[in-house]
Amino acid sequence: MIGVGDMVLLEPLSEDSFLENLKKRFDHSEIYTYIGSVVISMNPYRSLPIYTPDKVEEYRNRNFYELSPHIYALADEAYRSLRDQDKDQCILITGESGAGKTEASKLVMSYVAAVCGKGQEVNKVKEQLLQSNPVLEAFGNAKTVRNDNSSRFGKYMDIEFDFKGDPLGGVISNYLLEKSRVVKQPRGERNFHVFYQLLSGASDDTLKKLRLHRDVSKYNYLSLDSAVVSGLDDAANFRTVRNAMQIVGFMEDEVQSVLQLVAAVLKLGNIEFKPESRCNGTDESRIKDKNDLKEMCELLGIEQSVLERAFSYRTVEAKLEKVSTTLNVAQAQTKTRHKVMGVLDIYGFEIFEDNSFEQFIINYCNEKLQQIFIELTLREEQEEYVREGIEWTNIEYFNNAVICDLIENNKNGILAMLDEECLRPGTVTDETFLDKLNTVCAEHQHFESRLSKNSKFLTDHSLPHNCFRIQHYAGKVLYRVEGFMDKNNDLLYRDLSQAMYKANHSLIKQLFPEGNPAKVNLKRPPTAGFQFRASVSTLMKNLQTKNPNYIRCIKPNDKKAPHIFTESLIRHQVRYLGLMENVRVRRAGYAFRQTYEPCLERYKMLCKRTWPHWRGRAREGVEVLMADLQVPAEEFSYGRSKIFIRNPRTLFFLEERRRQCLQDLATLIQKIYRGWKCRSHFLLLKKSQIVVAAWYRRYAQQKKYQRIKSATTVVQSYARGWQARKLLRELKYQKRCEEAATTIAAYWHGTQVRREYRKFFRAHAGKKIYDFTIQRIMQKYFLGLRNNLPSMSPIDKNWPARTYLFLDGAHAELRRIFHLWRCKKYRSQFTEERKAVYEEKLEASEIFKDKKALYPSSVSQPFKGDYLEISKNPKYQKLNNAVDEKVLLADVVNKINRANGKVRKMNKGLQGQVKASVPLPDLTSVSVSTQSDGFFALKLKEGSASAVKGDFLLSSEHLIEIITKLHRIGATATDREQLSIDISDEFLVQFKQDKVCVKFVQGAPKNGNSVSCKRKNNRLLEVSVPATA
């Protein structure tokens, strides 16, 4: 071991030898040293390979002094005391800023998480406890001139364990977050880590949603001179924080709410105010550029006008009246009981060039922690020796209770006077507060001020007029009173809290519950100093209920560099931490003490006279126990209510004996249990064997009975079979005799009948044979026809060939009947629409088949009817509205000019108007040619209104469909004659007063037209149709 691992064993003991031992161990990377059960931790400012999983296993369940000093040894001792002895523990980590307190707390928590139980739920709780650190550091730590990861708040975590020592959860309490750092940072320092992590590590899409830019210089709240810190990767830390928030239990929408709030704080820093004067002479403020205000309101879901008014106005309420006043620029810019192990990681003692209210509160907290250390390790230990009647030489030490009283005294303490000044009516400033301090605390030996009544400080030029100095246990600290009053008031105007409560942002509502109009409280809120003093008091009471374990952190140098040991700095820390006094008390005192009852209860199994029950007094039992164990008398002393053990090795000896005894007892219990278990098992087997044997004998007898019964049945069956077969043979013989007699009689009667019938047989035999042959031929024909029937298609003309000529008529008739039946089946599948189409096609066949050359080409074309789609085409909307009845056919046709015979395309509904209409009763007949043309003449009734200009001669591509529909309409009408259809190559038409003959001739096509029409004279119109191939 390098140097001395436990300062209690250091010889000779002096301050120089103490420091020399620390330096020797520090130079060899031994950063941990003991003072009894207190661990001294030196910050190495570098990573050391002493925190591996192998190290964790090495220190697990080992005695405190068994291995070299390590923080894991203290964590293991605290955990085992909590688990095995049911004592609540607390680990107090103290030291000044930059000494490594936060890292020490992480190591303690990681060790406890590694050595406690396993399981899905346990691992989840452990992971949540460990991952709470990155989240808390992001929002509560910042870079300072002394520490790149300085805690700017106090953190106390209570980790709860069940009876097995498995973690159940934790409760984290925080103390005095340095809120002023958000708006202002000293030179060389940064704002809280989360702002830089968000801008560096968030994706471009996230920054766009939050309306942020990656450039740090765009935000007034972020200092530029220390925006980048060597050794800190803000982007990677942001990803770590996001992952840790999910593990801790943040939902994704909650994470987004937190990030929106962080972005809103950055936007808030960019809002600037300009002064203005009102007509009544009062000052007011206005926001210069409202763009950042608008984006901030969008992020938080607040109306811009509401927030702008809250920034510029405040409401003063007196009795039942409310007065709204404007803010000037300066005011507008101001902002089941479980086992418990507590880990305290709180800000260290701070001495800066410019110390304000925050440093005063932080140093006050460190004074209280130093006081509890003195109470529990120095004063209380010495007083306990005297109280118990142990021979003891008193050791002098500095008690800082006088400094704590200077700060927290309810009447004349600095915090009490600060609260009194804040509540006093009239003009109250930082200067009036300092005047009051100079009056009340002037004679106090630890208070110094230039303006106090004490004349010895009047010429002290190192003490400015607006400052006061306190001589703390760690040294003198100069405090500037500027800002003490405002920071202690910590006021948030009600208008701002109510504006924030109106936000649609759920997190903002939770942060400002006092903004709820239904819960308006006119009582003045407590000051920051009062709240912190109450929190510290609660913390001290909590710590005093637990068994303390101390880690005293020491900063080796101010350069934050490895391998540098600044002796003067460390000597100062050793002095104000009281480490030398702690060593002296430990060397002169006893390492372990315990009341007689629990001591006897714990170790009574080591002596046969005290095990298992001791009937006398507890002290007498402990004396018998120690005498039986032959512990040297100089190693322990008996007090009035406790036994004191001087050397830890004696305690280790007792624990080792107890462990061996517990193993022996466990072995005995196991032996008795195994014997009982084996006997019980044997008796159960014996009982089971009897039951099994009984059931087996029963089963064997049943099987034997079944075999005998089966054999008897077989014998009986064979006997009955023999008897039955014998009877059967007799019956068969009797039956054969009867059948023989019957057969002989039958043959005899047959012979007689045949003799009588023979003379009639030849006359009727031929006809019967013929009828039988014809019947067999017909049967064979019908069966063959059934097996060779054609398909069900009506157009299938296949039919099986006949085999006999005499079946020719029947064969043809069956073919006709089958075809009719097949057609009927086919027609039964038709819908009404399809049936109507086929009826039209059938009627067209009756009219034009073998009469019109155009007909065969129209058979395969379906009759569509409405070729213009009048109901859908917007061009024919008026025409569609003008027709009330259903349109059966709408098509474009060509009209033949009556004067010259030229063909002109005609669309009766082209402009959406009806130019001419012909009622169906005025139509007498229709004439068409036999050729393949599409010409047809509509002959009108003479004297009708439609026949003024004469008959119509038209041409259409759908001639067959048009004529068929006209004929069907005429056939279905009962009030008029059926339309006559004339199919001829020559027919007469009436053109006004002249009768003209329309003649169709075959000829070659002209001008590319297939059909041409020409007026020869007044009496003849010739239509030339190309000859068909």
From TrEMBL:
Offer an example of a GO molecular function term for this protein: actin filament binding
**What's a Pfam family this protein contains?**
Myosin_TH1
Keywords on record: Actin-binding, ATP-binding, Calmodulin-binding, Motor protein, Myosin, Nucleotide-binding, Repeat
Residue ranges of domain TH1 in the record: 852-1027
SUPFAM superfamilies annotated for this entry?
P-loop containing nucleoside triphosphate hydrolases
Q: List the residue ranges of the region (Actin-binding).
A: 536-558
Where is the protein found, in the record's own terms? Answer: Cytoplasm, Cell cortex
Against SMART domains, the record matches this protein to: IQ, MYSc
Domain Myosin motor residue range list: 2-659
Major site of localization recorded for this protein: cytoplasm
One GO cellular component assignment for this chain's record is: brush border
Q: At the top level of its lineage, which domain of life is listed?
A: Eukaryota
One GO biological process this protein is involved in is: actin filament organization
Binding of ATP occurs at G95, E96, S97, G98, A99, G100, K101, T102
Describe the family membership recorded for this protein in Swiss-Prot or TrEMBL: Belongs to the TRAFAC class myosin-kinesin ATPase superfamily. Myosin family.
UniProt-recorded name of the protein: Myosin IB
Q: Which organism is it from?
A: Monopterus albus (Swamp eel)
